[in-house]
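Please predict the structure of the following assembly.
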Amino acid sequence: MKTVCALLAAAFASAALVTGAFAEEKPVELKKAPGLDKVEANCAACHSLDYIQMNSPFPSAAMWDAEVAKMIKAYGAPIDDADAKDIAAYLKKNYGS
Amino acid sequence: MITRRHLMGSVGAGAALAVTGLKLPFPDDAQAAGAAKEPGLPAGTRSEAVLGALPGKKPLIKLSYRPPNYETPIEYFRTPITPNDAFFVRYHLSDIPEVDANTWKLAIGGDGAEKQAELTFNDLKAMPATEVVAVNQCSGNRRGLFQPHVFGVEWGYGAMGCARWKGVKLKDVLAKAGLKKDVVEIAYGGADGPPFDKTPDFAKSIPSWKALEETTLIAYEMNGAPLPHFNGFPARLIVPGWTGTYWMKHIVSLEARTSPLHNFWMTSAYRVPLGKFPMAARFTTQEAPGATATPITEMVVNSLITSHADGAKVKRGGSLTVGGIAWDGGYGIANVEVSTDGGKTWTAAKLGENLGPYAFRPFSFAFAPKRGANVIVARATNKIGQTQTTELVPNGAGYHHNLPHRVTLNAA
């Protein structure tokens, strides 16, 4: 069932809070490269970042584009177009085939 | 009634996710590492998967921390019953409350119900109880072994388990509200949900004919003990024969429906190409006219070699017994054949204890290993003549992987 919580919207704006909230979870360290800050800020709210690492390095560029779009369209991730582009570019470069 | 865990609440609850990190031996020690080092998995999965223990669980193979997705190492499948503390954990959504059985309630209603009803945990336990031994297998078990790889939780062989479930027949629970004649589906929800309200909540349905079967239960015990938190405490749905997506954990609501349930998890997810798999049970109210996809339903016939890890060293000659388990969608295992030459020749294995048509069925086979590599392959056939596939049926979500499992034993 659903937790509708204004706090969460605020949390989305603050990656620090999101990662902080799950401090006991072992941090998943993704490759340090341009765009990582946007990935950490936008992709860790609903699940840990091991979802990305686990799904690599097989995805093609088109697959990563579709995956980022799925997070936004199917799961409601509040990510604007510019960030989505940078995130997709990071994923293709560092976790793509 | 239920302690809902908000994001802030998760600060404390994060402790529930504390994991004793322990890098898997890689890549040589097959014994301890289980599926995490299956060479067929994506490289990213192989490096990310570590053994980690959730509270109340043995170290399992961690695929994701949040939501927790942990698979059972193959060693635990040497018995037909999987221990509760080694049983795999699978969640889509990360807002997972600790449900208190004293305040838990199950609400029954819907436009197909005669009236509304509500059961407490004590009400449920006071009803006539029944038991079934049944395999709970994630639809995506072995997804990580698909070639080409597809997106999802990249499971190896262990997103499954078999337990003795005790609970109340779903049909008896539904009778508390009474069903109208034109009910087509029973839908249901659990206490867990998305941390963000734009993500579709996880709700599912089954056809009313499946809901009314004698073995479809609301279970509150697993192998003689309360359900572990991570397996759905205090009560979950048991849908023998069908894949885990229908086995709602932490169940809190039942809805009798006169129309099909359409949401992301029914209509977009958990679909397989129509006519490509040998499914006898179809969920026809979910099929749009002319559609090419249909909901996944029953498990396909399958088997797993569990006595030895791939690459194990054995003695040449003499008599070596290899074995494992076989299961299907509830028709029952008719036979398991084993090959010791990589699939060229096959001999019938001996079947072990029969815990019912929905359970893991053990098999064993004795042979004399020859010097060098002995490639052992197992192939199960069920009582309606279905056997394991020789070629994977491609499908976007990587469901129904039932290629014969093979392990290589090296004899010196």
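The interface with chain B takes residues 1-5, 7-8, 11-12, 17-18, 20-26, 28, 45-48, 50-51, 53-59, 63, 67, 74-78, 95 of chain A (CB under 8 Å). Residues 38 and 83 of chain A are 7 Å apart (CA to CA).
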